[in-house]
Known about the structure:
The protein is mainly β. The protein is built from two helices and five strands.
Amino acid sequence: xxxxxxxxxxxxxxxxxxxxxxxxxLKKEWYVIxxxxxxxxxxxxxxxxxxxIGTKLAADGLRNRVLEMSLGDxxxxxxxxxxxxxxxxxxxxxxxCLTNFHGM
Length: 104
């Protein structure tokens, strides 16, 4: 070692400490999908959305979301299960998402 230089001192501790992994489903909420009145089964599905944090609302994450559902699920009959309908979320009331027909 050269004369007049001081040796560097290292901190005693753990190397490479990482953040704890958090389960992503703890930050989610379940919402019920309500089909339009033209279908016999109104409550047809559930969907996930990230919880409201600050100015970012959960309802904004759901609004205008397009869902694809089979006609068998909407009418409780397996004979029409091959047909698919697209439903768009129009309004959120509490934990219910009201949908409207969007296409086939």
